[in-house]
Amino acid sequence: MMCAIYDLETLKTFFSACFLDVDTQKKREFVICKYRNDWNEFHDFLMSLMSNDYTLVGFNNLHFDSQVIQFILNNAGELNFMTPDEMTEVIYNEAQRIIDIPEENKYQQLVPEWKLTIPQLDLYLINHYDNKNRRTSLKWLEFTMQMELIEDMPIPHKKPVEESDIPNILHYNWHDVEATYLFYLKNLDNIKLRQGLKERYNLNCLNWNNGKIGSNLLLDLYCRKTHQDKKEVRQMKTINSELKGMNIVFPYIKFESEEFNNLLTRYKNLNITSTKGVGDFSLKYKNYIFEYGLGGIHQCIRPGVYKSDDNWIIKDGDVASLYPSIAVQNKLYPSHLGEDFYKLYDKDIVSVRLAEKAKPKEKQDKSLIAAFKEVSNVTYGKSGESFSWLYDTYYMMRTTVNGQLLISMWVEKLLTIPDVILLQCNTDGVTVKFKKEYLNQYNEICRWFSELTGFTLEFADYKQMIILTVNDYLAEKTNGEVKEKGDFVSRDHELHKNNSSRIIPMALREYFINNINYIDYLKQEHHILDFCKGIKKKSNFTYVLHKVTDGDYTPEEYKGKVLRYFVSTNGGNLMKHYNDGRKSDCESGWKSTVLNDLRRKSKNSLCYLIDYRYYTQKIKDIILQIEGDKNQLSLFE
Questions:
Q1: Which residues contact residue 604 at a Cβ distance below 8 angstroms, ignoring those fewer than 6 apart?
Q2: What does DSSP say about strands 556-558 and 552-553: parallel, antiparallel, or unpaired?
Q3: Tens of pLDDT along 557-580?
Q4: pLDDT per residue over 204-221, tens digit each?
């Protein structure tokens, strides 16, 4: 697939389009305005993209850039006879019409993907950034990808463009192309997966998020097997007006303790008319607190450092593919889809994926493994969505409730091991610390649980666990690998999430894993961006940096969508200025230096007046929560 990264700028009196050929790295730019008119070259270039079967790659391009391109192609005859000013105004008006379409009407009013003349790959959509809980801008990705420059459009889109503005606009245009290309490189595996599915199953899934891939691939496989029409199956669902707990809980779930039996009774006595908040229970057993809810079971020991040694072992056990395994082992399926669905799910999906994973890595079909992972998980994931063809709350509740209860059975048995310490329990696994002499008992319990449920269990041996909460911890395996979660993630983070002050989890990792003085570590040479924080601007305020320079008070307003800064000894007071006159500090009691532009500046942290006290305090606060030993910390000060 030949690809070109691209981005458009549509101002009232100016239009530009920049393209980067992925393979050759050749660049092409086109401008239409009264100072420069590349209309003929631009139109010819679009025709050559079509004739050479190029795919255009962008960020949110399926719902904007591609629509503008299609408008230009559809109206090329009329545009050909317009002046540059007339062309830019017509294109601008169309761009504003597209932008102003309400979100709920986009699919009705935009040109559908299959009608677009030039194929598109939208990195925004395949990462599901159109989901409100993941929504992410290209500007925010410029921060999380640690680009040297975070840049916003230099002039308002309604302002008439002067000839002197053109270089700045083009620089901004090319910067967005650069950001999109960097993000493209980070998505190569995602793209290869979609290309593989297109070839294998003839699914036009290039712009689908993973959940949509799972749902549609499963639908395709199901309809092939049952010879049913996809349109008809899409309309299917099972409506349950009331669900009784007695019918949800598996009959083989049994407990020995009074506490867990009381929990079982509570689940059996449920009468469910709405799944919202159902099964939100707390349970205390042997001084451990367990929290139950639709999302699973959670328990965590108090913050601390938990180590294995010559006498003690830390074992982590997880159920491989818990929810798919529950469905397969207990013959669960959405009622309206019949037993054929279960047979397909078991033999043609879950079993095929597990068999492929069992092969040596060099012989695995990684695209099949990745695709069938999405298919395996989507049945439960979509079973609670009323618009999905997989909707069946009975299936959903049987999966999640029994998942929690089965893990609880495992926990109850593990807590019979003498002197055992339960470190964590979550939706699909349990981590315990116990004396080595009881390893056989641990293995027997796990064997019993696996035989009872049919689950495949996966294990890890930990050298130590550094626990803050159930979602925030470091786990060092005996083979040297380190698992980072939540506040401890220092690398390979999800790009839509906030990786501000990455130096803090980096220092925590060195402190706990390698016993390195965290203050000394902070003062070593690092990339300055590891100290930086990112904040997003909203429409009801602007950021203003209040600073005194050489005796002069110089407030500086920042109107960009994302602001990057670090805490310094020579900076200013960074504040939010709200439209209603209110003001608030971003870092109360600390000074900040804005660093949206790192070009032509050193990347070495030692070249900046970083206020190490700020970062030291943040690290110390976390360590104190975990270790609770101020005397030990004072040795580093």
A1: 525, 527, 528
A2: unpaired
A3: 998 999 999 999 999 999 999 999
A4: 999 999 999 999 999 999
